[in-house]
Design brief:
Blueprint (H helix, E strand, L loop, with lengths): L3 H10 L4 E2 H10 L10 H13 L3 E3 L8 E4 L1 H15 L6 H9 L6 H31 L8 H19 L1
Helix pairs in contact: 1-5, 2-3, 4-5, 6-7
Length: about 170
Amino acid sequence: MLSKTSIVICGMLLQGNMNAYDMLKMIDNMNMQYWHPIGATTLYESCLRLEKKGYIEDTGKADNKTVYCLTEAGRSELKATICELFERVDFDSVWFCLAVMYSGILTKKELEEEKMKRATLLDEYEKGTIENRDKMLASKVPYIDICAIDRMIQIIQMEKETLSKL
């Protein structure tokens, strides 16, 4: 599975070839620093790792800078990663955000299948989490001890809403 930064790089390259500097500008324009900051060093190192793995490659179309494109292997790995992210619940909501952002790599049919899988998982998690919270409330557990559970329920509900709009 690709790292968050690798997902962003491969996802941006779905839109077309670009160099690392253009990627940094795009990341800045997306205000990504507030939810998944990616510095220049991290981006350049990630590009080198992705190139070594054969997921991206230099197009050779610029003399003084490397212009990357996504390879078929990179496209395949990105697609597999997006599917994997839809099929697991992680309360680090950046993972789901990235899955949604780059879900355009999936066909319409694949996206519908992944949305159904995700919705089923979210329903299970929501039911179990609400049951646990209600048991704790009935036991008069102080709210401070269960506020994180309420946050999880809110994340689940937001993800369900996102799926319905996707």
